[in-house]
């Protein structure tokens, strides 16, 4: 008999959330992997809903203000569940009965109350059905997830989707570098088939894997996310990239073009890249993709909510990005402090950023289209340094995207904070929420920080 599986992306539990082309990419990869087996599966994405539509397929989620968990009870901000209602979720589950197992994903670690709530409802609707939890929270906080999520199995790492065929980063890279990059654990964690077997469920392979957009998981595609590679060749001290994916691999440009073309044919016009290093090896990667998009005369809009590397923004890529329809671009600077730029991993310098901006402006990218990420709250970072960064970006007439530091287990910054006694391995992940961590632990004068944020808001809107 054919097995039936439910894939679930739980709600966001946070102080604020907006849908900026958000999709549960890891869970969609699981769906692609499972598509090669004799399985019937359905997705319940609790965040696939918008209350107010915004441009380019983005939007505001509906929310229900809820009681704060004890750990963050004293924070004076509204805390909410973003996404569909609890009733809708339960109804979707009940209408999917009977099913044999459930896979739940997790994204930001501090959204885990959404995972708990989803599993609590699954267990009440279908007691005894195995629930497997994977995703970022399950990987970074494996012990916490084992003790608190209610799932029957916690999957650490990510599975390799056979649909994604990877290639060496670049023929021009040195063999040593390629070797380093390919030793990544693209198939870490226990094999998913083995986990099913342990629950007495047998998966029978009978199909070729299919991409997620051919699996009938979503009824509408107001936008689509595209991942052209996994991991990052850098290792910044505050970033989760290398903790979640040990290595750096990129897909064949022809496969990426095929995906864009097929999505275009079903009506998608807004595409958001979710790569950590979209522009790496651009000569043999993104430039090839964009030339094909231009040649095919696809009238589409590209967006990069993740920062791209300023060091790879040369004249040609700036031209190709403009011609192919890039509308939203973010560059990662984080700080103007030279020592901190080097100390955190050396991904960029102020000079490199200036050169990238020159190339982008030459091809008519505007302040509205180009934003620069600037961090505050990094260990040891004063507010003066943040102010300097703001003035620097104002002078370049670019949008400023202030981001709060949020500590991630396994990073260099995490170890630093651990030594100082600010975090422990047993910390409640709720306290690492970027909306509150800086307020609690940076030592900044809250009024001065608010003034700075207001100044940036006014500048961005000017
Ligand atoms: S370059 Fe960006 S994605 Fe790569 S490690 Fe640094 S912050 Fe993370």
Q: What can be said about this structure in brief?
A:
The protein has about 450 residues and is of the alpha/beta class. It has 2 domains: about 1-165 and about 185-205, 3-Layer(aba) Sandwich (Rossmann fold), CATH 3.40.50.280; about 220-460, Alpha-Beta Barrel (TIM Barrel), CATH 3.20.20.
Explain what you see:
- This protein is of the alpha/beta class and 462 residues long.
- It has two domains: 1-163 and 184-205, Rossmann fold (3-Layer(aba) Sandwich); 221-462, TIM Barrel (Alpha-Beta Barrel), CATH 3.20.20.
- It contains 17 helices and 19 strands.
- The protein has helices spanning 25-34, 86-96, 112-125, 136-140, 142-148, 175-182, 192-198, 241-244, 253-265, 286-295, 315-324, 338-343, 350-362, 383-395, 412-419, 434-441, 446-461; strands at residues 3-9, 12-14, 39-45, 52-53, 59-60, 63-65, 80-82, 101-104, 131-133, 153-154, 166-167, 224-226, 229-231, 248-251, 270-273, 301-303, 326-334, 370-376, 399-404.
- The strands form five sheets. It has a six-stranded parallel sheet. It has a five-stranded parallel sheet with strand order 3-1-8-9-10, sandwiched between helices.
- β15, α10 and β16 (301-303) form a beta-alpha-beta unit.
- α9 (253-265) runs parallel beside α10 (286-295).
- The protein is globular.
- The termini are far apart.
- Iron/sulfur cluster is lined by residues 232, 234-236, 239, 241, 276-277, 332, 345, 347.
- Iron/sulfur cluster (SF4) is lined by residues 232, 234-236, 239, 241, 276-277, 332, 345, 347.
């Amino acid at each position: 008999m054919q097995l039936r599986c439910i894939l679930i992306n739980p709600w966001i539990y946070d102080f604020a959330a907006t849908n900026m082309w958000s999709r549960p990419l890891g869970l969609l990869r699981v769906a692609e992997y499972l598509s090669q087996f004799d399985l019937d599966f359905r997705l319940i994405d609790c965040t696939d809903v918008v209350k107010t539509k915004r441009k380019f397929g983005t939007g505001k989620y509906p929310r229900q203000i809820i009681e704060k968990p004890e750990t963050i009870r004293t924070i004076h901000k509204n805390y909410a569940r973003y996404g569909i209602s609890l009733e809708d979720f339960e109804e979707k589950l009940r209408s999917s009965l009977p099913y044999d197992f459930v896979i739940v994903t997790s994204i930001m670690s501090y959204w885990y109350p959404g995972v708990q709530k989803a599993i609590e409802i699954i267990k009440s609707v279908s007691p005894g059905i195995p629930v497997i939890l994977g995703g970022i929270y399950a990987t970074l906080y494996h012990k916490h997830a084992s003790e608190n999520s209610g799932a029957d199995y916690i999957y650490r790492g990510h599975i390799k989707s056979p649909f994604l065929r990877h290639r060496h980063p670049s023929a021009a890279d040195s063999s040593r570098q390629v070797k380093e990059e390919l030793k990544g654990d693209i198939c870490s964690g226990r094999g998913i088939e083995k986990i099913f077997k342990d629950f007495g469920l047998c998966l029978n392979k009978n199909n070729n894997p299919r991409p997620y957009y051919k699996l009938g998981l979503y009824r509408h595609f107001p936008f689509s996310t595209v991942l052209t590679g996994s991991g990052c060749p850098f290792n910044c001290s505050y970033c989760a990239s290398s903790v979640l994916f040990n290595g750096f691999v990129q897909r064949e440009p022809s496969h990426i073009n095929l995906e864009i073309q097929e999505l275009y044919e079903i009506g998608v016009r807004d595409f958001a890249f979710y790569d950590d290093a979209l522009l790496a090896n651009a000569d043999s990667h993104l430039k090839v993709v964009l030339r094909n998009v231009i040649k095919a005369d696809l009238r589409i809009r590209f967006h990069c909510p993740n920062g791209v590397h300023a060091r790879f923004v040369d004249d040609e890529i700036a031209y190709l990005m403009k011609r192919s329809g890039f509308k939203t671009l973010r560059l990662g600077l984080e700080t103007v402090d030279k020592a901190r730029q080097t100390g955190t991993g050396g991904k960029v310098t102020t000079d490199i950023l200036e050169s990238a901006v020159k190339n982008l402006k030459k091809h008519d990218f505007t302040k509205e289209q180009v934003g620069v990420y600037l961090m505050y709250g990094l260990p040891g970072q004063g507010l003066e340094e943040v102010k300097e960064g703001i003035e620097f970006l104002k002078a370049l007439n670019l949008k400023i995207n202030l981001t709060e530091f949020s500590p991630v287990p396994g990073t260099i910054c995490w170890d630093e904070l651990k030594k100082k006694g600010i975090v422990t391995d047993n910390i409640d992940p709720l306290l690492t929420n970027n909306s509150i961590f800086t307020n609690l632990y940076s030592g900044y004068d809250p009024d001065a920080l608010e003034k700075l944020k207001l100044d940036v808001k006014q500048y961005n809107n000017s």
